[in-house]
Specification:
Layout: E1 8-14, E2 18-20, H1 21-33, E3 36-43, H2 60-73, E4 82-84, E5 93-96, H3 100-108, E6 114-117, E7 135-137, H4 153-158, E8 162-170, E9 176-186, H5 192-203, H6 206-222, H7 240-263, E10 270-272, E11 290-292, E12 298-308, E13 311-320, E14 327-332, E15 343-346, E16 353-360, E17 363-370, E18 375-383, E19 387-396, E20 400-408, E21 411-418, E22 428-434, E23 442-443, E24 450-451
Helix pairs in contact: 1-6, 2-7
């Protein structure tokens, strides 16, 4: 049940009006979302001890390494690019940060619903009861010594596969309370900056999504899906001795990756089995499948078999070695797993993959992945399975991958992962609904359904199990 018809009134705590680009994006998403408005801002105009300033000489190696790492792995858009957020505060009352009493007075008159703190929690912990739903902050941003660490730094150093980030309530003692929003992202094993860059672009959406959930579901319902509590301690910036070991570990790991890349070619492969996996998928490990050998000059990926009468056709992404993009191909799959010659069925001046083929109203249709074109397109077969014509574009200007269509009870569903601005296309599952596969397709009001790299991206045809 919605808590209010009017937009939520939001205050922000900033260490400066010049902020990293990802924070500017976070504020812009709030302003453009229509569920909340920024009406007050508390800004530290001195910012002499702002998070992100560099530690002392005993952290010199950390400073040197992070600069080098950022230079090597820097990509655009850069979340750390400095941006003036003043235009996004045009309708806000801006007050300079002062003592606790003055800070409190500046926000008390604004009748706030939520306060967002970007930076060190000590700046806002005295304000936790100055807004109806408290202060929200990112506990992953700041180290124990109040310097900014790359998000996921510890996960990258440890070689972990994922990093969990949250937007939390701030307690009066400066520690994180219950999680307002949680996401799980892939951690890069070689570069703290690479992990930080992809994760921060996801984090930029947390405040707007949490505010939308609050307006849509109310306080009680909005928190049912999130776990209470959070970390009680934050990592610290490594000193020179510890950083020497970290640099050696990451350097050795990166060197090993470079050697493997020089000696071996990475490519996908296919495998098949005659029967589906049984209940509980027992025995469905890799050893129960038989490999289909790639041709020597190309590899196959994203297999999707379809049955047409007595013939099984296998649609695949086909990527010739040395090419800069893949096309789609089809081949006959025999009952013994042998495949016939591959025939190209669709090629474009951009990369194609994931040929999702289905039958509807006595016609064959295909939705290939067209991420490089920023569309989700529907094709209809004019001579199955070899010839296809563009039917229509289902989604425009979207970084969507592996769109998978499914009909249930007369309702059509599209499952696809969509990359947030600057983020990964593997992490966030979105649903769309339509009366027919031709559309129009409507986004589900709770998108994204998940923000978890471990189980969001589609991987083939959907099936039902009791």
């Amino acid at each position: 049940m919605a808590i209010t018809e009017a937009p939520l009134r939001v205050g922000v705590v900033l260490d400066h009006v010049v902020q990293p680009r990802w924070i500017e994006h976070a504020l812009r998403l709030i302003a453009e979302g229509g569920r909340a408005e920024i009406v007050a801002a508390l800004v530290d105009t001195s910012a002499a001890d702002a998070a992100g300033s560099w530690p002392s000489r005993r952290h010199a190696l950390y400073r040197l390494y992070t600069r080098l790492d950022r230079r090597i792995f820097r990509r655009q858009p850069d979340p750390a690019e400095a941006r003036d957020v003043s235009p996004l505060l045009n309708h806000a009352v801006i007050a300079p940060m002062s003592d606790d009493a003055a800070n409190r007075a500046a926000f008390d008159t604004a009748n706030l619903d939520v306060i967002l703190c970007f930076g060190a929690p000590r700046r806002a912990r005295r304000l936790v009861d100055a807004a109806r739903f408290g202060v929200w902050h990112f506990p992953d941003l700041i180290s124990a010594d109040e310097f900014e660490l790359p998000v996921g730094f510890a996960a990258t150093v440890a070689g972990r596969e994922v990093v969990t980030t949250t937007l939390n309530d701030l307690r009066a003692d400066g520690t994180p309370g219950r999680a307002r929003y949680t996401a799980v992202s892939a951690a890069n094993r070689y570069s703290p900056h690479y992990t930080d860059r992809r994760v921060k672009w996801k984090m930029a959406a947390f405040p707007a999504r949490a505010l939308e959930g609050l307006t849509r579901d109310g306080e009680a319902e909005a928190n049912l899906a999130t776990a209470p509590g959070g970390r009680t301690s934050a990592p610290s910036v490594p000193g020179n001795v510890r950083m020497l070991g970290i640099a050696a570990r990451l350097g050795w790991r990166l060197a090993g990756h470079a050697v493997r890349s020089a000696l071996y070619r990475s490519e996908w492969g296919l495998a098949w089995r005659a029967e589906p996996a049984g209940p509980g998928f027992d025995g469905a490990g890799p050893g129960t499948y038989t490999a289909i050998e790639n041709p020597p000059d190309r590899f196959w990926a994203d297999p999707l078999p379809v049955q047409d009468g007595e013939t099984t056709w296998l649609f695949v992404e086909e990527f010739p070695h040395g090419a800069d993009r893949a096309h789609l191909a089809v081949m006959e799959l025999g009952p013994d797993g042998r495949v016939g010659p591959a025939t190209t069925v669709l090629a474009q001046p951009y990369h194609l993959s994931y040929p999702y083929v289905f039958r509807w109203n006595d016609a064959w249709y295909m939705v290939p992945e067209t991420l490089a074109n920023r569309t989700v397109d529907l094709y209809r077969s004019t001579r199955f399975p070899f010839e296809w014509a563009h039917e229509r574009t289902l989604l425009h200007d979207v970084a969507a991958v592996d769109a998978t269509l499914f009909e249930q009870g007369g309702q059509w569903w599209m499952f696809t992962t969509i990359a947030p601005f600057g983020g990964s296309e593997n992490d966030e599952l979105h649903l769309f609904l339509a009366d027919t596969p031709l559309g129009p397709w409507r986004p589900h009001p709770r998108n994204p359904q998940t923000s978890d790299v471990r189980g969001s991206r589609p991987a083939g045809r959907i099936f039902l199990r009791d």
